[in-house]
Amino acid sequence: MEHNETDNNYDYIIVGSGAGGGPLAANLALAGYTVLLLEAGGKEASVSYSVPSFSGLAAENENYRWDYFVRHYADEKQQKRDPKFVPAKDGVLYPRSSTLGGCTAHNAMITTYPANSDWEYIQQLTGDDSWSPTKMREYFIKLEKCQYLEPNIAKNTGHGTSGWLSTEKADTSSAPKDWQLQQTLASCKKRGLDAEQLGKINEHLDPNSVSVTEDHSTGYFTIPQATHNMARNGTREYILQVQQQFPKRLFIQSHALASRVLFDDIELNKAIGIEYLQGQYLYSTTPRYDEECQLTQPVVNKAYANEEVILCCGAFNTPQLLMLSGIGDPEQLTQFGIPVRVNLPGVGTNLQDRYEIPLITEMEQPFKVNELANYSDDPEHDAFLKSWLADRTGPYNSMGSPLMYLKKSFPDKVDPDLIIFAKSVRFQGFFPNWFWTFNPIKNQFTWTVLKAHTNNRKGVVKLKSNNPRLAPYINFHYFNEGSDDGGEDLNDIVQGFKFARTLMQDSPFKVKEVLPGHAVQTDEQIKQYIKDQSWGHHASCSCPIGADGDKLAVLDSRFRVRGTQNLRVVDASVFPKIPGTFIVTPIYMISEKASQVIIEDQKRKKS
Prior knowledge:
Elements: E1 9-15, H1 21-30, E2 35-38, H2 47-50, H3 55-59, E3 65-70, H4 76-79, E4 92-97, H5 116-126, H6 133-143, E5 144-146, H7 151-156, E6 165-167, H8 179-190, H9 195-199, H10 201-204, H11 210-215, E7 219-222, E8 227-228, E9 231-232, H12 235-245, E10 250-253, E11 256-263, E12 271-278, H13 291-295, E13 299-311, H14 314-324, E14 327-328, H15 330-335, E15 342-343, E16 355-363, H16 368-372, H17 383-391, E17 403-407, E18 418-423, E19 444-451, E20 460-462, E21 473-475, H18 488-505, E22 511-515, H19 523-533, E23 567-569, H20 584-606
Parallel strand pairs: 1-2, 1-13, 2-10, 5-6, 13-23, 14-15
Antiparallel strand pairs: 3-4, 7-17, 8-9, 11-12, 12-13, 16-19, 16-22, 17-18, 18-19, 20-21
Helix pairs in contact: 1-12, 1-20, 6-20, 18-19
């Protein structure tokens, strides 16, 4: 049911419908509470949303894409060495999504379980044992509906079988016919993956098995994806399912851009509601934010929460909204004429991301699968789409990379910190119209090296203005500008890059390295290439949970904003250190945890 401005009181108001806010809203409604879910984008879906191979096309959809331009460096010379840098925007494209489901509407659907050490760190930091790995695994079991394993195997390996998030794996039985997989599987054979294992690929190569996590396992694994019947599923579907079931509990207000948190005038710093702007394409990151949009004066609405306000806007927008509400570093707030409500200097600090770097090769002949793939939303012009629409078969039923290699950069690492995966496309990061570079180039292959458990904690989100429609300043301060003083991240990625080269060399096909090319050979040359070309898309940690007494801790272990009442944050910004390899699964897990915590606190309050 759509929110009606005349009925503006709810138990809970949740701002943002992504991986944190969407499941939280649904869970609270299922528990019997009335919930208003505010979403800056719309609710419309599209073919590009549903087709797994169209995640890039979904990210380019003008109806709901938000184009942030972020800096990787403060140093101008180093920043301009990045070919993805856009001078007119003073940054590198960082795609986000503004629609029901948030970035789960355009992500690659990769669903991988984080390391136990990610939860142990928060447990030890806060002294809160509810963050223990054993207890956090229970949330994963609760939310997952594993469909790629037999139910008894799934239950015995730490999976859920009845949750709201369906997980599947791409069909690898057609691999011998698929050029996209042949190169990967050829190198698998040399790296110790035999034919018998390939025949049991789902059972033996599951990265989310509890034993893989506990044993810190490395090697080849298949990639679980968040699909149901080989179509994207996740936050959006869960929200709509619960709303249909309980239309008088869960209310959705779309095209609602939150502008500030409302506080009680009597009780100090008690959150009582949200002020929001009503209208389409109000935020400056939308490609439709033209001159007409900028001049439009949107309707200003207010909604009120009887219990709590919960911010789930993501690592860029949650700190921005807190600062616009007077919560943050006083020096920054007063610069833009914002009255200081809570002196919380950690807001917008500690911003983190992973690093990704490409190794691109070229084949003598085009890949057969690429010759037929048009990435069109018209089935009459795309045979693969027609096949997918008919019976969910063909190359479009996966995100495009069914296997990954999980590796430790150095033997003394406790957890694997590198993932290497491959796709039969040219992909070197994000820049305007990046997805459309896939189609014309039919004979290139990209090995991507992803560095997890990064050490840099020096990224920032800062206000540029007190106007809620303008995006903040974002700088990740990569490598030598960050807090990784010993250069550990850079050295780790060099090891991953060299390993990717060995995989390329194992190929039975004649290949030519086109990026970075054979001129880049020494460790120093590789390091410079990495510094010039790296990117990320798992922004997090900008409103971190921390220990009592830590002046930079924004939240306590129960997601409460310090110095306030009835205000919480539940999204990627809450982590003190970036978890896992792909961040969406840890966010889903904290959303489930927050649901339980909030319900517990409410029952305690009423008792």
